[in-house]
Amino acid sequence: MRLQLGEPPKDADPFQYFIQSLKLSGAGQGTIKLYYSAINDFLKFVNKNPNEVTTQDVINWINVLSVREGRSKTGDRKGRASTIRSYVIAVRRFLRWLGVNVRPPVPRIRTPERRALRESEIENIISSCKRLRDRALISLLLDTGLRSSELLSITVGDLDLQERTIRVRETKNGEERIVFFTARTASLLNQFIRKTKKGENERVFEITYQALYKLVKRLGKKNGISWLRPHILRHTFATNAIKKGAPLPVVQRLLGHKDIKTTQIYTHLMTDDLKRVYRDVFEG
Which residues are responsible for catalysis (predicted)? Predict the structure, then answer.
C-alpha cells in the first residue's frame, strides 16, 4: 500500500505535518514511530531549515549515526545496521516529499541468516522457563510467529482462549490479522491470566522490548544457543510451518507479510538445509 501524504504545507511545520499525514494515511504505529525518531534526530543534527538541506548534510549525519550506533550496547551488529538503513530511508523520503533534491547513499546490510530452532531445542527452552509468564510468552511466540512489538501490544480482550485465536491490531503494516495457538499455549495463558487477574483492556505481557530481548537471550545462553533472539522464534515458526506443508500464502498471512517474496525467504532456507544435508551424507 502506497501512502498518500499530500502536498507539503507553506506555513505549517513540515515535520509535524508529515508525521500527521502518515497517521491520517493509515501508516502503522511502528512506521510512524520510526519516521518520527529518524527525522527528529536528523533535524536536530543539521539544525537548519529542512528545505536548505544538502546531500553532504545527510552524509555527515549518517557518519555520526553510524558511530553512535556502533557504540550502542543494545541489540546486535546486524540490528544496528538495519536501524541506520531504516533511518536513512525515512529521512530521504521526508526530504523528497519536501521537494529537496538530495541523493544520500542508503547503507547496505547483508541479508541475515534465517536460523531456526530444532524440536529438541524448543522443548528445552520452554522447560527451562522458571516463571509461568515466561513459558506462556515463549510458547505463544513459537506458536504464532508474532513480531515482538505485536506480542507486547496484545490485550486480554484480544485473546479468545476457547477458539485459541488472537486479534492482532497493532501490526507493522497497519492491517489487523488473526493468528492461532495450540491447546498447550492456551492452558498456559489461561493459568497466567487467572493468576494475575488481568482485565480485558490490560496488556497480557506487561514488559518492555528490552526485557523481552534479555529474557530470550538469557534462555538461549542457558541452553547453549548463543544466537537466540526474539526474531529467531518468528523464523522458527515460519520454517516449521512450511516444512509441515502449510501453503506459502497461508504462512504469509499468519506472519503479516505484505509481500509474499518476504515469506519465500524461508523456502530458500529449506533448500539450503537440504543442500547441506546432501553434501554431508554423500560428499562428507
Answer: 147, 172, 231, 234, 257, 266 (o-(3'-phospho-dna)-tyrosine intermediate)
